[in-house]
């Protein structure tokens, strides 16, 4: 490191636009320290050695009218040399076909990106040009930093002509995307974007960066506006931060097989949240680009690249392309509808649990779900019988791109599901439920599943592992799985593979209540049921988030035990199955004040079916009352955790003898556990 750089305390490199996005995500403080240490005013030795190896580099430059352009320039390796830590000599002749060339005069600020597609290494620079000849210039470095290698596809390059020989075809200028431009964007898995801001110091800061995704990840609107998902990265937000201050953008798409270049300049808009963001799985934000000037340069580059077999970036496993995102938006529009699903596959997970893989049968895609959510399904169990509605937890992760429910044979509906074969049909509605996990959180997670309660736990574990591939950091996780016997325990292979992929960050503890001939340490770790004593003996002292799922008594006793240890209520996420829901003891010691139940008879009107009934104090729930009156409302869990029975309240109020775990919206009731609340009118109208 140069001496003077050692002595000077680095300034924060961030400008107001970058800070605005960092603040909106709550990472500004963390990024302040990172920026000061990571963004340097000189090239470390590694970078000085990196640039001379490259046969091409990307540049961002601003022309006299303020338009920013991204370009790629190629020459024999060695055309860039760093005589010291502050200067990069770049031997490149002028190229008047390149719109970026006009922004590369003496004293102009430019951005630069060196990238090795065959290794995914990349480094960024920006600074000002010193030029006294037409065959090259020196870049005086202002900012230098490495870049994360995510979303880069592996490619090997080869020159197809002398790099100084110009293209054989003249550039074509336009203002809109023609068919050729649309085609190059539609198949792109990579592009480059240039942006800039004029800083308070008077210096212009130009950045150029790489963007990668699955082929087709850039969506082209009918109006020619591009929508681009922004996947998680290094939290610098150079490009998006620049857009917040100055919405000018320059995009470069390269056809790696033909050497064609598509260069565009126009305006950009950042979208921090919208339903489209959720539809682009893996995207944290979106941005849109409206092209204003479009230049197509056929054979613009003397290089061609061959895609390496298996060269897709592993970070892309948890992202979708724009077609998949569109399908998800269509599916989201059908969230409240019962949709037909076909059984695509059936698989036994244990002697009692069978998985059904479900594929949509209406030509519309799957709606995105969160790990831990359940799927409301509707099935016809026999002629003349009314359809049954039940909810089953999805044992698949959001990134699996499929719905898989894993069902224990236990009751009419589940026996029916166990009898279904591939090709049979059921109906399902959008996944629901708030028993979900953030796979990227840093706090360690303890996942505890008993019996078929392992299904949401498995989905959560799969999600944690999928997020670790994307973020290259695994949330530390303990998994406790309780079962009666090895034969009844489900997902052994799948869980073992996930634990192995966690590389020591995921640990598994298996309990058998009836181990019989099973061998300790090989087939199980704990004989008996998982209880607080086992948790205390196994878990190192730390601050955990707990996720519990199992029979009601099991879940309640673990919850109560954890609360007795002063674990905050908010840290214990739980879902119980069976007829009783979990009774929570909120932080602060007292339960939330619930409106008292009516202490006088209430006249209940079921408005849609034009029926009425009288509810008497001490009677059952509104679902019981509706069924007694001959109605068949939909329900799943009957304990306030799935949300299937949500019903709009048209007049009057309801209350709950114990707080349901499903979040109830304003103006609606979970009738499976609601009763009429005290009111002056003595009336309750439900949209049933
Ligand atoms: S049926 Fe599940 S919340 Fe009412």
UniProtKB/TrEMBL annotation:
Residue stretches making up the 2Fe-2S ferredoxin-type domain: 600-688
Superkingdom as given in the UniProt entry: Bacteria
InterPro entries noted in UniProt: 2Fe-2S_ferredoxin-like_sf (IPR036010), 2Fe-2S_ferredoxin-type (IPR001041), 2Fe2S_fd_BS (IPR006058), Beta-grasp_dom_sf (IPR012675), Cbr1-like_FAD-bd_dom (IPR008333), FAD-bd_FR_type (IPR017927), FNR_nucleotide-bd (IPR039261), OxRdtase_FAD/NAD-bd (IPR001433)
GO molecular function annotation: 2 iron, 2 sulfur cluster binding; oxidoreductase activity
Domain called FAD-binding FR-type: residue spans: 336-438
Keywords of this entry: Plasmid
Protein name, as recorded: Pyridoxamine 5'-phosphate oxidase family protein
